[in-house]
Structure formats: C-alpha cells, structure tokens
Amino acid sequence: MTLKDSGLHDLGFVGDPFTWRNNHHVAASFTKERLDRAAANSAWRCIFPLVRVANGDHRHSDHRPIIIDLGNKENSESNGPVQVLPKFEARWLEEEECETRVMEAWGRALEEMYDSMVEMQKNVLCDLWEWDRNVLGELERRIKRAKRELENCRQQGISQESVKNFIANQYQYLFTSCVGQIDEVLNCVGSRVTQDMNEALMEPFTGKEIWRALENIGNLKAPGADSMPSIFYKKFWSLIGNQAK
To answer: From the centroid of its chain, how far is CA 66?
Structure first.
C-alpha cells in the first residue's frame, strides 16, 4: 500500500526470495523473510527498461545484498564507468602493520588540514589501499595463484603427502602478512513527548553517548557514505575520537 501511494513499483528479483534470516541454528526458531526489495517510479523505469534485480549471497550480514543491474540506459548522456568509492577492509586489522599505517595516514591528514572529516577519511583510505596493493597483495591474485598450483598438482598425480603439504602451505600463505497525507495522520496522533523530554533530546551529543551507540553497531554492518565500518572506529577510537565527536 505504501509503494502504491508513493507511486513506486516493486522491480521483482531473481535468486532466493528470502532476503533476511535470523541466523538461529535451531530449526524450530529459524526464520526467513523477504524484508528488502528494490522499487522505482514509472519515469525511472522508462529510463532503465532493462533493469534486473538479483538477491545476492549474505556473507557477513543477516541480510542479502540487493544487486541492481541497470542494463542499457536509454538516452544516456554518458556511458563512462561509474566511480566506486573504496571501502575499508576489515581483513587489514589482522595485519601487524595496520595500526601503524592508520596512525601515519591520519597524522598526514591532520597536517594537510582538510575541511571535513570525510576528506580526512578518504585520505586514510587511499593510503591503506595503496598499502594493500603494493605490500599485502590483492586477495584475488593470491587465490588465482593457489588455483593454478592446485591444478598443476592435480595434473601431475597427487600423493597424500603432497596434498597435505600443499594445503598447509596455502593456509600459512593466506593468513600471513606478505610484506500522502502525513499531516492528517499526525493530527490524529496525540503528543507523547513532553517539553522536558524534548529539551533532553535536543541536548548536544556527548562523547560517551557516541561511544555507547558505536558499541551497539555490528562490527561489519554496511558502512555509510564515509565507507568506514564501525570496527574501524572501535579499533582506532583513541586516535580519531576527538575529530569524530
């Protein structure tokens, strides 16, 4: 009903129909629901008539990602690639050098005197991604190398001892550093917030309140516009807390 009143249409989907699960491991309490969906109005659908929506695989979240393929855009003014902002990778925290790299990058950002917190974070992310490419090596490259070596072993004939050594070496390599009408509705709802309650809600946030809210956010929940998951702030709060406040 809400979609209809807003002039929106469900775009449908391919894949598993259930986009959320409660992660309970007991069959009696295990629940799956379709909570997430993609919607658009008629004008948008005319611009992207070949849109395709897929429910992806949930890995670190209880929600499936909603992946939207726009297909060919009609009357497009630009067919250039869309810029994807880099994101903080939680796997970096497993590296011994990560904290040192963040402190150095944050120090350089402070010296540059950026105008906003977002600009400082972008500077830190750029430095971390450069470190990832030049020092850690990309995970995809490691996996491809492991697949090639495994295929070579398969073609050469495999003994039990060679398989054991191969698996042990690969795990050691992977886990080791490599260098409507809302007003009418509201008029029918009685006020429940008193003046004292409103004044308390309007008080400026304190550092303790920000930290308490941060602790209640899952470490790897989807980040916001700054591309930083909550685990980054928790890990480096002593370094960036004053700016975040």
So the answer is: 12
Across the chain, which has 245 residues, the per-10-residue mean pLDDT values are: 78 85 76 87 80 82 86 52 65 86 86 77 85 74 80 71 77 63 75 87 86 87 78 86 72
Helices (H), the chain: 2-5, 42-47, 98-112, 117-131, 139-156, 160-174, 182-187, 195-201, 207-215, 230-235, 237-244
C-alpha 36/C-alpha 39 separation (Å) is: 10
Q: What Cα–Cα distance (Å) separates residue 100 from each residue in 62, 95, 96, 110, 128?
A: 32, 10, 8, 15, 11
The pTM (predicted TM-score) of the whole model is 0.39
Q: Is 88 exposed, middle or buried (0-12, 13-18, 19+ CB in 10 A)?
A: buried
Question: Using CA atoms in the order 137, 94, 147, 135, what is the torsion angle rounded to 10 degrees?
Answer: 10
Q: What is the pLDDT of residue 1?
A: 65
Rounded to the nearest 10°, the torsion over CA 157, 161, 164, 165 is -90
